[in-house]
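Lab notebook: predicted structure, single chain.

Context: the supervisor wants predicted structures on file for every construct in the current expression panel, including those that have not yet been purified. This is the next one on the list. No modifications to the sequence; it matches the entry in the shared construct table.
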Amino acid sequence: MKLKTFRGGIHPEGYKELSLGAPVRPYLPKGDLVFPVNQHIGKPAKPVVAKGDLVLAGQTIAEADGFVSANIVSSCSGKVKAIEERRVASGAKAMCIVIENDGNYTLAEGVGKKHHAGTFSNKDILDAIQKAGIVGMGGAGFPTHVKLSVKKPEAIDFVIANGSECEPYITCDDRLMQDKSRGILDGLRLVLQLFPDAMGVIAIEDNKPEAIKAMEAVCAGEKGVMVQPVKAKYPEGGERNLISVVSGRDLKFGQLPADVGCVVCNVATLYAIYRATYYSEPLMKRYFTVSGDAVSAPATFEVPIGTSFAELVEAAGGLRPEITLKKALSGGPMMGIAMPSLDAPTTKASNAMTLLAEDEVELAQAQQTACIRCGRCSRACPIHLIPQMMADAAEKKDYEQYEKRLYGLDCIACGSCTWVCPAKRPLMQLFKQAKAEILAAKRK
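Prediction complete. Output recorded below exactly as produced.
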């Protein structure tokens, strides 16, 4: 059977085997837990605790402050040590609630209480998602209750469970599908209840045979749900690409998935929906991969949100003694954020940390030449942009050309153009800078 795929994209080495073989281990942090109040797209949450307050695991410590916002929940029990600015993974400062972890993880009342299937109304489901503070866990961080509150539910034809996990090194979703397949299916069922005419499609790249097998086993005989293996290619997990592969529909610039009859949820988001609805369990923990050639024992952990990246390096055996760490990334090597320090907290959207003995960006800078007009960047772009012309406009700061004629703001910063460029031009970095400057000017 010929596997479905999309135009463009690249095939970087996966390195999945580094962490995939190790069993998932629950990790309970030893130090303070830190909760930025802006762990989602939209307005930061508003703290509802004060310094010195005692809190329990599962307790809301910051409430959504607007429609596009999300609650923040403590993943430990202890005392509020501070509400102050702290460095996050990007190196920027953000307002954070710091909790002195008492090590007991005492649950707030009602957390973990089992509810019977078949008794949930659509309002019950959306209320549970909103209360739990669930956001997109594939990296975007968009509040899930907002995504699922579409104007015309009957117009949704596909609910797509994103299990592609195309980024190199990262295996947390692969392991989640193997370990929690029934919970993912139950979460998908809950979302399908909101969209009565939709088909559920679980899209998984073909380099994850055990995940495909696990999901196919629980979906056997399930009406309105199917597992769709797709060709392994980066960036398969982008919404626009996945919608094209699964539905054959083209998500045009400026459109939302619902505009073409689709809703896309990461498999980890679906599992969180299941836990929130069936067990009144807010989003407190998630699967998280620590990998790369600089770490001693790559693995995937089940991690309370707010855990320090530095603690997770130690949990993975620390750095290899013969290696000098050149780069630490929050995420994977394609779209991950370079971290100036490991002293930063994980968030709801944190799925991995990649520790590398070589800095590919640094190596590329030493080899950089002028553009040779080969066109490889355009062929690799998964959303049909023209990176060569975008780079020229960005370097000249011709932002009207960049935005209005070249659609530069629609770039998803996947890095495919940079990866294939024989001239080693820092295309994605140019595009990120241009986008930041354009958006800053718009805010003014």
